[in-house]
Amino acid sequence: MEALIYASGGVVIVTILAVVYYLTHESKYAYERKFDYGYRVALQPVSGQYEKDLSLDPYATLVTANKEGLDGLDEKEETVPMPTLEELSGGATFGTGTPLSGDLAKVDPSKLYRDDWRAQKPANVGQRFLVFGFATPEYKSDKMAIAWAPDASFNSELAPFDLHLRLVRAPSSVTVQPIDIDLKRQPEGRMELPSYVATSDEARTEGYVFALEATPTSSTAAAVSGGIFRSEWDPTGSYPKFGFVPLLMGTFLITLLAILFASPFAIATAVYLSESAPSRVREWVKPVIELLASVPTVVLGYFGLMLVAPFLQNTLAKAVGMDSGRALLTTSLIMAVLLIPTITSVAEDALRAVPQSMRDGGEALGLTLKERLRKIVLPAAKGGLTAAILLGMARAIGETMIVWILGGGAPLLPTFHGVKDTVGNLMKPVTAAPDTVAREMGNVDFQGVHYGHLFLLGLTLFVLTLVINIVGYRLGRRNAWQS
Amino acid sequence: MIETATSTPVVIGVRGLNVFYGEKQALKNISAEIHEKKVTTLIGPSGCGKSTFLRTLNRMNDRIEGIRIEGDIQIAGEDPYAKGADLLALRRRVGMVFQKPNPFPMTIYENVAMGPKMHYGLRGKQLDEVVEEALREAALWDEVKDDFRKKNGLNLSGGQQQRLCIARMLAVRPEIILMDEPCSALDPISTAKVEELIGQLSGAHTLLVVTHNLQQAERISDYTAFFMFGELVEHGHSKAIFTDPVHRSTQDYVSGRFG
């Protein structure tokens, strides 16, 4: 018998340690993250059709770092030689190219390659990428412009490196101030330059040469740690973002609302059961409530999806605008249904633990049931009642299925512009941390960066619920009359 | 059989009191008269009904499921069980102290102030005075005067807690005080203090004290009632009960042959 007790205790402890170890160990893959960048640079006429949107300019050079999956076609395109002036004439007014040799003194015309906006030019952090440019003889203005813009969805703020666009060589025939643009400060812009028109194929090699340079500013680990505090979770985008904020915000909102919905009911029920219910009623109701706590959450989830969500959508759609029944409100309501039995049961135990003698004292003093509750029993059971709510919170934080089924799966960052907007948050879809882990874990690259971040998220949840449980446990044990 | 003394008027009169817990009869045809401003102790073996009797007087048994109370009780000329009886007035008139000290989870001041605030609507300075007076009467003032507004009643020692409960009860200015084994959870020094308090209170209050401690009963009381198996066996002057009881079972109990 004793051996059995030790064995089961050991299994529990070993399991917990193993979970912590596994979560920590696997989350290291999050720290193998490489930060990508993507930038477009183009030489343009002073006023032209692509002035506003550089991404449409077919001659803009797109430089990207660490992007995997450049297909073979791109590489081939990259090695298309620069057309001669004759070939360019009548067509392009500007030529830009990529000199493959780093020697700026003599750019070999035969080693010039034409840029194509579809072709991404890979460059690693720490390397310098050169862009070469000139105007063809058709161009008549004495000004031309260098324009730069980040690739769609690339945000240099998030990257742990400095990005600079520098003029490294100007044609000898023009006079120009040195140019060094900090792309973090000025991510998008356009700057006029004196025209350089290449009148012969030889003269092309005299053109402007710009360098795009990325230099690391912080360690990857620091950047990853900083990255998880960002407000965007977009793990599969071309520049993936692993901000936990929207997920934890979803968890927080659902938990908060569910607790707000559930606690009054649960505590009122607990008070009724412990203070005024006849023992026959209590003997029946308490086990039934505890039975409710064992309803599988997937059942609760589909109950919400089939009955509550359509009902809410039909009744609220006109009043406040609810696009889908799968929303924060529905999720929190069903979560509250899940929490009521847990909170009721623990709260009832806490209330019953208040010594009868205290109630007697109140009664002998002439306090009514209501006054005894308000002045004596509830304050005395404060610790236990808080513990009940905290245990409910821990349950809500870890709950996966209900959020997965009812949340709608879109991150929600609430907005508070007036009453209508604030209430409107309830009608928006939501996603939380546990359902994100469950939903995405099946589709990630094994031991990839996304995978690592899901484990890091799991570890965060584990620590969060552990802390809440410990606090709840300690509060539950510490009763005022036992101090 | 009831022996009565006529030195002071009768303040509690009980006639033909029967109390049932479901099928079980806890008190059998009890009749007794309690004299004003005297100390009456209720003695008897465990489960004899003395606590039930005490709690029935101020309707502390009402919440017990399946309880049935028959008979006639008069407290200062009023029947607490009459239809429309003023329960609040009964609580005001009859104070109670319990076996286990039961201060409320709040400061000493709040504990004592709760009764007068509720019953007399006292506020501010008047309330402060009542609280201080009650704490003085309960001989607790000197020990807590420095921090009674901040200190939680639960942080006092057992004996102090019991005196706090007495102060709380006294602050309501009851005429009759019921004490259900007030010293059984206390150490000898605390017990002596509470006994001394009982002596001081008896001049102005009628006290009914349940106790298991026969020496204590002899020391503190003017009258003693001996209960056994739900019956009031003997009730009279303490001196008579302890030295020359009428009944054999009383004789056996007070001489320690059982109990």
Any overview of this molecule?
The complex is a heterodimer of chains A (483) and B (259). Chain A is of the alpha+beta class. Chain A folds into two domains: 36-218, no CATH class; 241-482, MetI-like (MetI-like fold, Orthogonal Bundle). Helix content of chain A is 48%, strand content 15%. Chain A has 16 helices and 13 strands. Chain A has helices at residues 2-26, 72-78, 85-88, 201-204, 220-227, 245-276, 279-292, 297-320, 328-352, 356-364, 369-380, 382-398, 401-406, 418-424, 433-441, 449-477, and strands spanning 37-45, 61-65, 94-99, 112-114, 120-122, 128-135, 143-150, 161-169, 180-182, 189-194, 208-216, 233-234, 241-242. In chain A, the strands form three sheets. Chain A has a six-stranded antiparallel sheet with strand order 4-3-6-11-8-9, with no helix packed on it. Chain A has a five-stranded mixed sheet with strand order 5-2-1-7-10, with no helix packed on it. In chain A, α6 packs across α12 and α9 (328-352) packs antiparallel against α12 (382-398). With 259 residues, chain B is α/β, with parallel strands linked by helices. Chain B has a single domain (10-254), classed as 3-Layer(aba) Sandwich (Rossmann fold), CATH 3.40.50.300. Chain B has ten helices and nine strands. A six-stranded mixed sheet of chain B has the order 5-6-7-3-8-9, with helices on both faces. A three-stranded antiparallel sheet of chain B has the order 2-1-4, with helices on one face. In chain B, β1 and β2 (24-35) form a beta hairpin. Chain B is globular, with a radius of gyration of 18 Å. Residues 1-5 of chain B have low confidence and may be disordered. Chain A binds chain B through residues 278-279, 355, 357-358, 360-367, 371, 375-376, 379-380, 382, 480-481, 483, and chain B through 58, 60, 63, 65, 87-88, 91-92, 95-96, 98-100, 102-106, 114-115, 118-119, 152, 154-155, 165, 168-169, 172.
